Amino acid sequence: MLPITIRNRTITDADLPFIQNVINEYWDSGRTHISRELCQRWNWVQPNGRLKDMACREILVTLERFGHIKLPAGLHNGNNPKRNRFLASVLVDQTPMQEGLAHYGTVTITMVRNTSLESLYNSLVHQYHYLGYRQIVGSHLKYIAFMDQRPVACLGWGSAAWSVKSRDAFIGWDKPTKEKNLHFVVNNTRFLILPWVKVKCLASKILALNAHRISSDWLAVYHYPVILLETFVEKERFLGTCYRAALRGVVPTGRSLTGSVWVKPKGPPKEGMTIFFMEPSRMFMSIPCGKTSGRNFVDKDKPEE
Question: What is the pTM of this model?
Fold first, then answer.
């Protein structure tokens, strides 16, 4: 089986004695402590300097599953009581909003992660998004859009998908460049306009407002900026028009990519969109935006492997 690569770290036979020695040294301290100790010795950290201890635990569990190491029993049952637990419904004003944008007050975007409003975000997404609420794993931010002091939309952003061939080709990434820079990309995991809100052009306005501020928010929380946004649109349900319109509102000369991707082997195809809302070439692109070895597009009809 070895070598294996998990979370972009390759483990070989030569690594096993060292890993097992650390496990034995901290056997009674639990798996979390062991994973943190390994990360410190490997100097394996995220771009914001935090230890990659969750990724390390995934490595340890995988190695044990295949009989390469021996781990102590877990101190907990492995169930996070805060993840995807029952969510109480939060009542909000459901009076229909159907007039034009000019009829209402200013649209504002509030970052709600780790605030008193986070439970409102979780509840609204749980009740009204067709995929429901799931705790976002890894780096993430949550936003609520308000209009006339009423919540009208929720947006969730998380770590980018690891393997999207159309995106990587469009940017011009080879594997080493992607490994170095993927954390600068974030994925729109949830976008919900509340069902009683039917205001023309509101969705694209909210996306544009969120795109304008997300990089500074991400920098404040994770200590590095966001350069590029991506999303996946289920083609049988949505057209993705608001994303294209929002792009024009953020960077009139910006570029976007569309291409079909399969999120699950047996799931419905989703159209992947990569939205540049800052000038990417000056930050981390290996070649100018939109040029990939003489072509700037991919086969829309070919699903990702």
Answer: 0.71
